[in-house]
Design goal:
By secondary structure, this protein is an alpha/beta fold. Helix content is 40%, strand content 17%. It starts with a helix and ends in a 7-residue tail after the last helix.
Amino acid sequence: MSEQRRSWLVLLITTVVCLGAAEVFARLLPKNYYEWQHRYMFISEGVNTNKTFADGTTAQWYKPDSAINWAVFYGYPWQKPKQEYSIWSTTNNLGLVQASDAQLGKPSIAIFGDSFTEPQATTPWFYSLENHWKRLDPQGNSQLLNFGFQGTGIGRWDQVSRNLSEPYNFQKVIYVAIGQDFARLGETGWNERDLQCLDNAEKCRKNHYYQAIAGDDQSEAKLQERTQQLMAKRNNTLDKKLRYGLCGISELARQVASVIGSPCFDGSPPTDYQSNLKTAVGHGLHLFRQQVARYGANNVFLVWIPERNEAATSRVSPISQQLLKVADHDLPKGHVIRCPLTAADFYDKDGHQNEAGSRIIYNCVAQALTQASEGNDQKIE
């Protein structure tokens, strides 16, 4: 073998060894990123609607007395898509994810939240919270109302307060929130095109972000087949197939992309939204202060949930820092509960909590509920 060939061989072996070592090291790093660009979401057809309030505004809502199946897959080119979770939940007479029906005029404790509270990705922990409340209030003098809904935040919670706090007699409120919830100012319903798809799976186009599940197509195998079709539509160029195919097999590529965006994500890195939401968070915290004034500080609780990137890195994001600073200042001692989720309490790819995470969130909200009922300050274990 010539000296030149030997040099090239040594260089090749060295490169392969270094890349292999870097890949192993990357798999030991915390996952400071989301893979939502490669997520495929399915929900039972015919369960979504728009609720119109007395003030004329609308909001995305679930139909009353519905059974809901959420199924989520992740997939990269040249790989078989993997189901991250599939869960069932039910709604009450008001379209809220809970077991007990809502009664007009009855004193209520309103639980505001997003997909962590609904919840979208695990067995609803709210069912257990209702049982906990029955032990705290055996006479049934007041009721819990679960206003958790995926993708929502302070804009919707303020909308619900303006329209439902009097007829449903909100006495106390508990916010179960991640930091970015206070940058979510929107309060609008589904557009007509999305509703047509959500009402009838046959009307869904492959570019719909949410896909409806027909009643006879709920098996994992059938949904996996549909995901493969959606993947082909979403990754329809050679460039995407090559880039995203590499990202599907390499944690090193995904870790690099989490910092610079390319090659796994289109546009900016997936956690850049934190810096882009500063102005919106300011408006959201103003609405939060109005809510505190509406109900009285002694009747307001905040259960703060770290996002997965915060839990993975043990660093509280700037927008969460803003929220906690305001809440610590405006609410009485013990009314702000930091829920101790760790990286292990989230799904491998999804940004939502897993079943273990839901148990922790339940414990945190149960603590707030106990304090709201009795004024006790109990420590979460």
